[in-house]
Amino acid sequence: MLAGDLALAGVLVLIGLGVEDLDNGSAARMLASAVAVVVLTLLRRRLPVFTLVAGSLVGVYLPGAFLVAIPLGWSAGRRIVGVGRALGAFTGAFALAVVLSVFKEWSQGRAVLIVVFSALMFLVMVVMPGLASRYWSQRHTLLRALQERNAQLLRERAMVAGQARLRERQRIAQDMHDSLGHQLALISVHTGALEVDPVLTDRQREAVGVLRQASVAAMHELREVVGILRDGVEAPLPVEEAQPAARGVAGIAGIVESARSAGTDVRLTTAGRPRPLVAACDHAAYRIAQEALTNAYKHAPGAPITVELRYEDDSLVVEIANGPAAGPGAGEVVSGGQGLTGLRERARLVGGMVYAGTAEGGGFRVAGVLPYGTEPAGAEEAGPGAVADDFGQQVQARHLSGNAGPVDWDAVDRKLLNGSRVGGVTLGCGIAVAAVVVLLIVIGAAVALLVGSVSDATVGRAEYDEIQVGEAESTVRSRLPSGDSILTEGLDRKGPPRPQGATCLAFLAEGGGDWDSDSVFRFCFKDGKLVEKQAYEAEQ
């Protein structure tokens, strides 16, 4: 960075020395211009406001340092924080440059033209680079912010995927608890019934006892595995998708028949006109019946069980009730305490509810109320008119709708970058057009200033010959141009000696002079009269 600033300062110094030489600048002024360029270039990053104002001051009095205004404007536009502060800095620098230019050229008597020319030069050399730099800085900041936001969205997507995996683990654990637990409980009931069968021999009872102990041990191991799968998972149970008929209301008769074949007294009754349920509610009804039967096997072995399906006007009621336990066996019950909790959560997600509590006579009762046509919460699809307010909401809507594919993050990056490039090209072209327009205005103003200076600095041979020595000064001056031009500076001192005490006006001769000299007409006045007129050649 320092090497680049030094290289830029060196280039500007060389150009400035050439400008000073064309303007016949002294060695001291050349040295001052070089020092000013180097100092301002090196300080422009740390002190953008100070260097901008100082550069406007230096450029008025040191022509060799006027080009440093371009990098100073660039640095100020990029590094000044805040629009108000930047506007104040550029306005102050502009006012200082215009005031100093008018003060310096006040003797020329063309204040309006000087103000216009100074303003246009400031726009071209300071404001335009400042605007371009500020746009480039804001675009760079925007792209960096978009990249950071994209990285954040990627991290969030990874977190969502991790949460989905945890929810899947919980779903697997719940299914294992419901399905395998029910089957193992059924095996335990079968083997328990066989152990007390008087037909079996002692050896057969021993084998059945081993089988029963193995089923109990399997239930313990299953509970441990389920506990591991559920460890750290606190998300609600996901809503089940469509299930086969064997896992819905139609499958309840099957599990009731399996319980009967195991020797359990189970009765199934149906009331009301059967009505179809949505898939999630249908599967929830099956799970309620399965879990309630499993609990009845474990906690009340040998007790009669009633399963009732009541199709009411607005909901299906699944009720499972059992009487008190007919015999011992509660000491061998394996329970994790999560079955009824899972049932309540499953019913809640489909808009229903589950009740569990003791029944009259010492039994237990589980009842679930499930609506017929309620979709799972959060499963509604957004209509075609739904539009997210921002990109984050659009991503969230895609996840919630459930039917959209994964977000193409590369396409998002390309879209953002292409949009930024299009905007950059448009703004860049606008700045370039504005710069060209302002430059043309500056050139036009410079041409107008030059034409005015030429007309004020030249006199024709015929006019020179018509003026005679001895005429009144006022009469002669009225016939001559004003002579206030940069082209006539010093011409009156380059010719023959002037008369003692006289004031002289020098003009360029129209159509005269060579590449290395100028033809000059000089008029000298004293005591209100023209006392001398001279025509001579002055070296450039």
Question: Could you describe the 3D structure shown?
Answer:
The chain has 540 residues and is of the alpha+beta class. It has helices spanning 2-22, 27-43, 48-61, 69-79, 83-104, 111-195, 202-230, 252-261, 279-299, 339-349, 391-401, 409-457, 461-466, 473-479; strands at residues 266-271, 305-311, 315-322, 353-358, 364-371, 458-459, 503-509, 517-526, 529-539. Helix content is 58%, strand content 12%. The strands form two sheets. Strands 1-2-3-5-4 form a five-stranded mixed β-sheet. It has a four-stranded mixed β-sheet with strand order 6-7-8-9. The chain starts with a helix and ends with a strand. 28% of the residues are buried.
> Strands of the biggest beta sheet: in what spatial order?
1-2-3-5-4
Q: Which shape, going by the Cα principal axes? A: rod-shaped
Number of helices: 14
Query: What fraction strand?
Result: 5-15%
Largest sheet: 5 strands, mixed
Arithmetic mean pLDDT = 76
Distance between the termini: 43 Å
- Compressed to H and E, one letter per element, the order equals HHHHHHHHEHEEHEEHHEHHEEE
Helix content: 55-70%
Q: What radius of gyration results from the CA coordinates?
A: 50 Å
The total of beta strands comes to 9
Oligomer: single chain
Weakly predicted, low-confidence segments: 235-245, 329-334, 374-407
Secondary-structure class: alpha+beta
How are the SSEs placed, and which strands pair?
Layout (H helix, E strand, L loop, with lengths): L1 H21 L4 H17 L4 H14 L7 H11 L3 H22 L6 H85 L6 H29 L21 H10 L4 E6 L7 H21 L5 E7 L3 E8 L16 H11 L3 E6 L5 E8 L19 H11 L7 H49 E2 L1 H6 L6 H7 L23 E7 L7 E10 L2 E11 L1
Parallel strand pairs: 1-2, 6-7
Antiparallel strand pairs: 2-3, 3-5, 4-5, 7-8, 8-9
Helix pairs in contact: 1-2, 2-3, 3-4, 3-5, 4-6, 5-6, 6-7, 6-9, 6-12, 8-9, 9-10
